[in-house]
Amino acid sequence: MDRLSIILSLLSGALITGALVIAAFSLGYYNWWAIGGSAIIGFAMAWPSAYYVSRLIKTRDPEWSPDQKPMDKGPIPKRNAKEI
């Protein structure tokens, strides 16, 4: 996992959860099940969507040149490691 997707997961989780809650409210579901279900779906979809957006950003950047594959070093990058 790269550091950009860690930061983007906070944003994408809030966006997905907010959109689902607004959709549930606009359909007339004003209960805790709708809010809780939206939060669970938003939490579950936050990292995959952030990772996808991170890959899109990095493939379109002409200055980006990774020197290793994404999963060579493990799931959590070291603090001073280069971006994958």
UniProtKB/TrEMBL annotation:
Q: Which terms are listed as keywords in the entry?
A: Membrane, Transmembrane, Transmembrane helix
List all membrane-crossing ranges: 33-53
The UniProt record lists the keyword Transmembrane helix = yes
Q: Where is this region: Disordered?
A: 61-84
User: What's the protein here called?
Assistant: CTP synthetase
Q: Which organism is it from?
A: Marivita lacus
